Amino acid sequence: MAAGTPPKPLDEIIGDLGPASSGGASLTQRVLVRRPDGSEYKAHAKFTVDNAGAGIVEYSPWGAVAELVSSGLARAIAAPACDYVVVLLPEGVDIRLRGDRQPAPGLAVAAQTILDAVDAIDGMLQGVDPADLARIGMLHALTQVGDHGGANNHIRAGDPPRIYSVDHASAFQAEHSGGTGPATLNLSALLAPVLSATPALLRTASAELAALTDTTIADIIASVPRQFLPTDEARDRLRSALSQRRDALPGVVAAQFPEEK
Fold it and tell me: CA dihedral in degrees (106, 147, 237, 4; nearest 10)?
């Protein structure tokens, strides 16, 4: 943002629609959100702290960072995923989470609700573009998300159907702990059968990572509010880790799924 440029107005949470169907460790909440132009949409929101100052989102506030960075990466590599952005919970808007906890007013993250979505389980990949699944696999490898190893944290929606990766609060755990996670490919149980049978799609998706520039990575991390990620050291660690994994993953995929001679 150029010096002197006013900040872009944030979408605001204006109503409580109740806990999400599972909610998970982050106590995800369904909310109504209003854009600056007055239009409204339903969303799934995650909050960092409650009125008592206790953390809400998983790994608070890191879980909010992980959701925002994972969403930015998903957009950049065209991987279908929940799309979290920074929103504002104004004073006076009453939100009641499970256990009757109330989030503190201030910044939160929210993703527009994907309509008519259902949990994706085995046998629900018919009609889905397998190239989308390969990009989701690359998203998981880039973010090293911690709880997508099984068939959980995927949803199916739309006609024609698409599979979306959801819930990335557990991403970047090595970076959260002060280190740098290696480039590894751990395909979820839902995606592995399809992608193992069509390894060329994984090789293509990994090669496409070259389009994820250092500038794009830096812009994604710069968009995270300082309130969530205050130190330059942590930001630099994330940037470096993502650049390293982007560069290494094509080789990892080629080694795990070599071309047939």
Answer: -30
Q: Which token pair is 52?
A: 């008592």
Q: Judge whether 212 and 76 are in contact, CB under 8 Å.
A: yes
Task: Enumerate residues 6+ apart whose C-beta is below 8 A from 25.
Answer: 58, 169
pLDDT at residue 4 above 70? no
Give CA–CA dist 118/120, Å, rounded.
6
User: What pLDDT, in 10s, does the model give residues 99-137?
Assistant: 999 999 999 999 999 999 999 988 889 999 999 999 999
Confidence at residue 5, expressed as pLDDT on a 0 to 100 scale: 64
* Cα-based angle 59, 118, 129 (whole degrees, multiple of 5): 100
- Percentage of the chain exceeding pLDDT 70: 94
Distance CA(139)–CA(78), nearest Å, equals 9
Cα 76 from Cα 143, distance rounded (Å): 13
The residue ranges of every structural domain in the chain are 11-256
